[in-house]
Write a structure and sequence with these properties.
Blueprint: H1 2-67, H2 78-90, E1 94-101, E2 104-108, E3 115-116, E4 122-123, E5 128-134, E6 144-149, E7 154-159, H3 160-164, E8 174-179, E9 184-189, H4 194-200, E10 205-210, E11 213-219, E12 225-231, H5 233-280, E13 287-296, E14 302-312, E15 318-319, H6 321-330, H7 334-355, E16 360-364, H8 367-370, H9 375-386, E17 393-398, H10 406-417, E18 422-427, H11 434-439, E19 444-447, H12 449-452, H13 464-474, E20 478-481, H14 487-495, E21 500-501, H15 512-520, H16 524-537
Parallel strand pairs: 14-16, 16-17, 17-18, 18-19, 19-20, 20-21
Antiparallel strand pairs: 1-2, 1-7, 2-3, 4-5, 5-6, 6-7, 8-9, 8-12, 10-11, 11-12, 13-14, 13-21, 14-15
Helix pairs in contact: 1-5, 9-10, 15-16
This protein binds ligand C2E and calcium ion (2 copies).
């Protein structure tokens, strides 16, 4: 009951993850993509604003140089003003140039009617008098940046828009030029946050999130100012939400696919124990055994075979033991599984064993089998009832099964005393430690396929197989190398003194008749091919 509830809890949790996971992934991806796109956008606008401001500085510099002294030595003379007009026509950034004295623009390209400029905002490090946000009487609603050369009085007026007018698409953005040392915005659309200046430190270019805002600042390497751009939190949010909306069909499709997979899986899982119980009933023939030969590496003769269970479900689907054995374990069905295996062996392997007194069949046992006091009795009874030779039956179990319990150890000893050798299966994949192995009295070690397949490769674990072989030798254990697929692996193992091997290189799992044929003559290879399809499906 408790296990059922726990399973249900996991199913709900996975269903929730199947829905929430893709949604979260879409949001994460949208935010990530949005942030990098916005970062690029802010940086490119900042670079553009800085480029325009540089153009202003250059045009202003040549205006100050050309107009610094009037051609006839008289400020605001007709010739001086004519020069001013020509300068403005040539310039695309300066809206007006003129001559100022005190707070008054005495004359400019607009004429010689004096205009009050108001008090300066500050004087820059190079001696320029700066006035920010000046309104020209001839240009209502204008905000001008007015810069006067303190020595000559030559004054340039710049319309903020000529620098700050970035595309209408970017109308929501804060854009401006900051006087670097003074930390004052020379021109700005939107508000400059002084914290951005601190955040910038001594860097010349930076574009990154500052809180919820994407900020880009590009500082001029030549002048004492920097261009800044800020994309507000609201714009950032709209942007990633738009991307998320675009990605949502993908998220929904993924979520639904995962839910569908989960549904299929739980359906299969919930129906599997019922069907497996049915298959385990004595009259049912859906479970059958195949036998994978174990080969003597010195003679290449088949000395035994491992019995491997197969399940053909209604409709012909072949289910792998890797799937149904764990289900049987979870539902405490392993005793029935072993009973079924013994029954199948009694039907097809016992007569065979009686005909081949040198041959053995190895069966896989589970923790549930080893934790029952009647295990030795059941196997002994089978050997006696079947009238097969001593040693006809071998047992395999994984390291996990042998973990410490007394009963398991007693069973282990009893089996060996009865002449049923015990092999430790899948060696190297579990808890194996040398001290644990020495305490464990088994007859044989099956070296797991995972190690065998590293033979001759550059894999980091390729040296482990040599250690395992040495370990088995030092403990006087016989060895069966599992999953041998290539002649190179066989040669290596033979050279290292491994006595037995099993794997597709020698033979796929075979039906009992094919096994019989194989032992009788070499014609078995043809039968192997027909069965290998079966084995590989499983
Ligand atoms: P196992 O005992 O380690 O069995 C060896 C597995 O490796 C078998 O898979 C076999 O078909 C496969 N194999 C053998 N040679 C090769 C090879 O050269 N290459 C590759 N890639 N694979 C090879 P199978 O038959 O699917 O069995 C899977 C597992 O299911 C077995 O692993 C065993 O733990 C369990 N099992 C199978 N039959 C029984 C059974 O009757 N009782 C119990 N308790 N467990 C069983
Ligand atoms: Ca095995
Ligand atoms: Ca194995």
């Amino acid at each position: 009951m408790y296990l059922k509830r726990l399973r249900l809890f996991w199913v709900y949790l996975l269903a929730l993850a199947a829905i929430v996971g893709p949604c979260a992934a879409v949001i994460y991806a949208a935010r990530y993509v949005s942030a990098s796109q916005q970062q690029e956008r802010a940086a490119s606008i900042a670079a553009d604003v800085l480029r325009r401001t540089h153009r202003v500085s250059e045009q202003m510099r040549s205006a100050f140089a050309e107009l610094g002294t009037s051609p006839d030595g008289v400020a605001c003379s007709e010739r001086h003003m004519d020069l001013m007009r020509r300068m403005v026509v040539r310039s695309n950034m300066l809206i007006d140039v003129g001559y100022a004295s005190g707070n008054e623009l005495l004359c400019s390209s607009f004429g010689d009617k004096p205009i009050d400029l108001g008090v300066p905002s500050y004087v820059s490090g190079v001696g320029n008098v700066i006035r920010i946000g000046v309104q020209h009487p001839l240009l209502p609603d204008s905000r001008l940046l007015v810069i006067s050369d303190a020595k000559t009085g030559i004054t340039a007026q710049i319309h903020e828009q000529s620098v700050l007018d970035v595309s209408t698409r970017d109308a929501e953005l804060t854009v401006g030029v900051l006087g670097w040392t003074q930390q004052r915005a020379l021109m700005a659309r939107g508000r400059f946050d002084p914290a951005w200046r601190q955040w910038m430190g001594d860097a010349y270019e930076k574009s990154r999130m500052h809180g919820q805002t994407m900020v880009a600042i590009h500082r001029s390497p030549h002048y004492d100012y920097a261009a800044f751009v800020a994309i507000p939190a609201s714009e950032m949010q709209h942007h990633w939400q738009r991307i998320a909306l675009g990605l949502s069909p993908l998220g929904i499709a993924t979520g639904l696919t995962l839910l569908w997979v989960l549904l299929q899986y739980t359906r299969q899982q919930s129906s599997m124990p019922v069907a497996l119980r049915q298959a385990l009933t004595p009259s049912n023939n859906d479970l059958f055994l195949v036998y994978q030969p174990i080969v003597d590496l010195q003679t290449d003769a088949f000395v035994g075979a491992e019995a491997l269970l197969r399940w053909r479900r209604d409709g012909g689907e072949l289910v792998s033991p890797d799937i149904f054995i764990p289900v049987a374990e979870r539902h405490q069905l392993m005793r029935q599984v072993t009973d079924k295996v013994l029954a199948l062996l009694a039907r097809d392997a016992a007569p065979f064993l009686r005909d081949h007194p040198d041959f053995y069949i190895a069966v896989n046992l589970s923790a549930e089998d080893f934790n029952r006091a009647d295990l030795p009795g059941r196997l002994h009874e089978w050997v006696v009832n079947m009238a097969v030779h001593r040693g006809a039956l071998h047992v395999e179990a994984t390291e996990r099964v042998f973990m410490d319990q007394d009963l398991v150890k007693r069973n282990l000893m009893a089996l060996r005393a009865q002449g049923i050798p015990v092999a430790i299966d899948d060696f190297g994949t579990g808890y194996s430690s040398l001290s644990y192995l020495t305490r464990l009295e088994v007859d044989c070690m099956k070296i797991d396929k995972a190690f065998v397949e590293t033979i001759g490769t550059a894999s980091v674990t390729s040296h482990v197989v040599a250690h395992i072989i040495e370990m088995a030798k030092s403990l006087n254990l016989s060895m069966v190398a599992e999953g041998v697929e290539t002649p190179e692996q066989a040669t290596y193992l033979r050279a290292r003194g491994v006595q037995f091997a099993q794997g597709w290189f020698f033979s796929r799992p075979l039906g009992i008749e094919a096994l019989r044929a194989c032992l009788a003559d070499a014609a078995c290879l043809a039968d192997q091919d027909s069965l290998s399809t079966q084995a590989s499906v499983s």
